[in-house]
Each structure stands twice: as C-alpha cells, then as structure tokens.
Specification:
This protein is an alpha/beta fold. It has helices at 2-8, 28-37, 44-53, 71-90, 160-178, 200-214, 232-244, 253-261, 288-291, and strands spanning 13-15, 22-24, 95-100, 104-106, 134-143, 148-154, 184-189, 217-222, 270-276, 296-298, 306-309. Strands 3, 4, 5, 6, 7, 8, 9, 10 and 11 form a nine-stranded mixed sheet that branches. The chain has a two-stranded antiparallel sheet with strand order 1-2.
Amino acid sequence: MIARIEELMRHDTAGDPMSGLKWTRKTTAKIAVELASAGIEVSDRTVAKLLKKMGFSLRVNHKKLSSTTSPGLRDAQFTHIAELRERFAEQGLPIISIDAKKKELVGRFRNPGNAWRREPELVKDHDFRSEALGIAIPYGVFDLHANRGTVFVGTTSDTPDFAVDCVERWWCTDGRQRHRGARHLAILADGGGSNNPRSRAWKYGLQTRVCNRYDLSITVAHYPAGASKWNPIEHRLFSEISKNWAGRPLDSYETILNYLRTTTTKAGLAVQAELVSTSYERGLRISDDQMNQLHITAADTLPKWNYTLTPA
C-alpha cells in the first residue's frame, strides 16, 4: 500500500533539504479516494499513519511565497511539470533535477545536527570567512530515473557558467553512458539562482556547450518563485546529504567529497562527487547577437518558465 501511495504522490511531494522532512499538496482524504478507485479501501486516518511512516509531516503556513506569482500560475506550472515528467518517463528519456546546495565554509566550523560520539567535536567559536580554508559550493545534478546524484563542488562562485559546466560534466561523465542513444534531455530547475530563466548566460551556455556540442535537445522547466522545495533534488538528494554529514565539521575538501560519496538510502540512492577548481567570474554578459544564435522555442504554457533548446 505504501508503494501505491508513493506512486500517487510522485509529482506532488516536497521536502526540506536540511531536515529531510517531506510534505505533499494532497490531503489524506483525497489520497484515500484515489486508493479506493484502485480497489484499496482505507480511511483517511490510516493514510495519515502511513504518511508518517514514510517520513511526511503536517506543515503549518509559512510566509515565504513571492507575491508576484499568482496561485493560478503556480498550479499551471506544477501541472505542466507533472505532464513533462510523465511524457519523458513514457519515452524513456532522461530527466534531471538541478540546484546549488547551501554554500559551506571549509574548516573546523560548526555543522548543524547531531552525531554519535564519545566526546563532543571541538570547533571554532565563530564562523569567520577569513579563517576558512576556502568555500565549497555543492551543485547537484539528480537523475530521477536512475536515482543517482552527481555533486560538483565549486570553490569560487555560483554563476550561470558554473551551472552549465556542471550539466555538461554530468552528461560527459554519467549521462550519455547511462542514457545511450538519448537525444533529448529534460531539466527541472529553480526559478532563481545561477540557472534562473531570466539568465542569458544560462541559456547561451546550454545552447553552445551542451546542445551544439553533443547534438542534444534540452527542455527546461523552472519551478515558480518560492517553490524550490518541490524540486526533486531538494528532498531526494540534498536532504540525504545533510543527514549524512550532520554534526560533523567539514574540515577539508576531501572530507566534503567523502561525505558526498558515502550518501546512500535504502531506496538505492548513489552519489558521485567531484571537485571543480575552475575560477568562475561573475557578471558575464551575453550580447543580443549571441542571443540571436539560440535555437530556442518557448512552450505554450508559461513560456518564460518553459522552453526547449535544439542543436544548431
């Protein structure tokens, strides 16, 4: 029955990347009705108990949604993303979820969480950037079909150039071997950050360094502002990483890579990790002439958030 509930909620689940808590847009009553239509008669109270076993929690309202995005647009985008995921899954085409995790100071600094030890771990009493060995910027690429994550740890800046570099590295090191013969890739991304839909450098980089180089079409769908928790990478990869290194100082890049690579789940999650020492400059400008080189088609549904790039 739990497997059936997971199937019903696969496109309506969100989660906290730090605590691992999950929640769903569907009520227990709606889930019970859908189960009944499949021949499984249970009460909504039983559904609530099963959800708790699955790691879901009741959530209160939080004032974190952008007032610029109407509920109608949000619902339309969630529906579009669900249909996109279904379509690509039916055709056996790869779908990845991408995002940058919280930046981390490298050194003996406090890392939230608890860990079993005989003695407490001693760390610095203040988090001064000047006392850090460096900064770690984990950028994740999560393959939904393979349940496999690849995390690229940057050391300079989270820029569109870095985001594109991570997508290209993933395709070269894992994606094209795992999805042999695939000529179309779907990307689920947040509505802000280095891979936001308004970024010229993000779109131009995908076109020139991924689409054109590897003869690959890319369909991108962005989650609305304030809805990043619904991005699968948040609760299927980042939350597991946070639990794996909870309470442990990230005292070196090697320590960070080790915790990333040893992150697993009972569901079979596997994680690769790579250090990216390339220096990325902020403020890269893409001219109108360069934008005119894009082979981009906007979707009929919310075209600013949904588009497809094809090889030139």
